[in-house]
Amino acid sequence: MAGSLGLLLAIQVIGLSAGTFDIVRITEVWPTLSEPLTVLGLAVTVPVSTVKAVAFWAFVVAFAIKVPVWPFHTWLPDAHTEAPTAGSMILAGVLLKLGAYGFLRLVLPLYPEQAKVYAGILGLLATTAVILGAFASWGQDDFKRLVAYSSVNHMGWVVLGIAAAAFARGTLSAEDAVIATNGAVLQMFNHGLSAAGMFLLVGVVYERTHTRSLASYGGLFPLMPIYGGILTFTGMASLGLPGLNGFVSEFLVVRGVWPIFTLYTALTMLGLLITGAYVIKGIRDVLHGPINEQWRDHGMEINRREIVAMAPLMILILAIGVWPAWILDVINSTVLRLFG
């Protein structure tokens, strides 16, 4: 609520200063506004640059909370833990993307100068989210919280691509920024597929065992082989295995960001390594090892209804991983318009 309040106040300042709340008109007027501001006919003594900087950070903090990016992420694991399976799927698959959309649709067009100046800070927060999100996920014993922290890790790639775009827009590195932004937008879509699928699979095993503790599982593969195959497939997509969707978007972000923020890109490789560790940890603790005898007679296997729910996600995960051009063509045309 605090982030949204700051965003609302900043929007009021922009609308009253520009004389309109029409987003197309504001996008044309606000970035070039340089004369002293007047609000409701009253002169504002604060310099325009200061007003823009304050409004910029109001937007950034609001959308950083919604993504969420470190250190504004602490609400997310608790929200996922308390939410039902369908709520977690919608939160991860749709709602988190509103923050990244806000960066692309509002922050970059309205604040090109401020975004370029502060892009390094945004990139640092994104890099930290990738690394610490992976470590936090790796350290979880609760299956659902493991997947929840993975969202911080994966959305960090999105913000890193956006930070690179903010820094390189209008420079000789603009082509690399376009690649990074394509990867960021595709990562938004891909994370929606893999995270929603993982939360559904967490819900499947929770419905049968009434526990999310990884220590309470173990050796479930012989009891639920179809579920085991689907969990492994979806986990590999989250990990970024070549041939599945996660690899394509993360590769594009890395390729685009490397010439712009080389150090940040190198540091995120640690997060990429730990991503593999936490995904494999989750699969190992649920499916492998000695069979927990208390689940042997519980009818553990995934049912037809749940398979039907997972099927569209799996088809898209594989389709994008094998042939991403069909969706990248759509994304790239929009990104090129963003970059003018």
The tally of helices reads 14
Query: What strand line-up does the widest sheet have?
Result: 1-2
Evaluate the radius of gyration. Answer: 22 Å
Rounded average pLDDT: 85
Compressed to H and E, one letter per element, the order equals HHEEHHHHHHHHHHHH
- Class of secondary structure makeup: mainly alpha
Low-confidence stretches: none
**Looking at the structure, what is the overall shape?**
elongated
Can you describe what's shown?
This protein has 340 residues and is mainly alpha-helical. It has one domain (66-338). The chain is 74% helix and 1% strand. A hairpin with a 2-residue loop joins strand 1 (38-39) and strand 2 (42-43). The chain is elongated and about 75 Å long. The protein starts with a helix and ends with a helix. The model has no long low-confidence stretch (mean pLDDT 85).
Produce the secondary structure layout.
Elements: H1 2-18, H2 23-29, E1 38-39, E2 42-43, H3 48-66, H4 75-82, H5 85-95, H6 97-110, H7 112-138, H8 143-168, H9 174-209, H10 225-239, H11 245-257, H12 262-287, H13 304-322, H14 325-338
Antiparallel strand pairs: 1-2
Helix pairs in contact: 1-3, 3-6, 4-8, 5-9, 6-8, 7-8, 7-12, 8-9, 8-11, 8-12, 9-10, 9-11, 9-13, 9-14, 10-12, 11-13
